[in-house]
Amino acid sequence: MATHSLYPDTWVDSYADYLYNYTMTRVNDREIAKDLVQETFLAGLKSAKNFKGDASERTWLVAILKRKIIDHYRKINSKKGRAEVHMDYAPQTDAEGDWLEQQVADPISTLKSDAFENEELGMAIQECISQLPPKQGKVFTLKTIKGMSTEDICNELNINPSNLWVMIHRARTSLMACLNQNWFAI
Amino acid sequence: MMINCEEAAHICTKSQYSEASFLEKIKLKLHWAMCKTCKGFSKKNARLTKLCEQAEMHSLSDSEKKAIKEKVIRES
């Protein structure tokens, strides 16, 4: 039984940021990430008839995106010589320790900024933002993620500063509640 | 100098983006001395700010989204 269906018209609004974050943690290049997200949507359209409805729309798109990311790495690796891992032996002369083993990152410092955990946190926040009323989500994203100034946002969305702060306040309150459920208690 | 909880929440949110004035910050601190609820809220609010920074999130701009949208609509 098909329990989920596809609504391609809403894809960009609903999933672009989610998929983009997912890609950025894996390719770390704005332009490439943007292209991969776009290719994912186009590939989704092409194979929409194969969508069985077992998974949610987003899960299905993420599955396509994963293939796209793998293909991307295959492509750049197949270029001559790129498949090898180049490791310079003692690149800096003033580096402590001559052996590669001595240059491995300190395990405690790598624990502190656990990339995997941060990635999951990013996805959890993104998920919570997508549950906000669209305008609140937009204002929050512009202010918090893009770091835009209050004045610029007000001009762009045609609102006044106190409107903006009320919206941000509501967004933050909802986000706190949402993250409380989906992430460690905050 | 006395503010109510609503104003305190407003200042607290502003201060998450370093946009609260010096006077506002003093008013907020005074309010905390009397109101445990707002103090707790501010703590959570600051934690959210920290989490958002830690997550290093990215977002596509409106024009980028529009370009993708146009392509998707053209293909569908």
Please give a structural write-up.
The complex is a heterodimer of chains A (186) and B (76). Chain A contains eight helices and no strands. The radius of gyration of chain A is 21 Å and the shape is globular. With 186 residues, chain A is an all-alpha fold. Chain A is 65% helix and 0% strand. With 76 residues, chain B is an all-alpha fold. Chain B contains four helices and no strands. Classes of the chains: A mainly alpha (186), B mainly alpha (76). At the A-B interface, α1, α2, α5, α6 and α8 of A face α1, α3 and α4 of B.
In total, how many beta strands of chain B? 0
> Mind describing the biggest β-sheet of chain B?
none
Mean pLDDT of chain A: 80
Task: Give the overall shape of chain B, derived from the CA principal axes.
Answer: elongated
The helix tally of chain B amounts to 4
Rg of chain B (CA only): 19 Å
In DSSP terms (H or I, runs of 4 or more residues), the helix count of chain A works out at 8
Segments of chain B where pLDDT lies below 50 for 5+ residues?
none
- State the end-to-end CA separation of chain A: 39 Å
Residue-averaged pLDDT of chain B? 88
Low-confidence stretches of chain A: none
* Category from helices, strands and their pairing of chain A: mainly alpha
Number of strands of chain A: 0
Determine the fraction of residues in helical runs of chain A and give it as a percent range: 55-70%
General form of chain A: globular
In whole angstroms, the N-to-C terminal distance of chain B is: 59 Å
- What Rg of chain A do the Cα atoms give? 21 Å
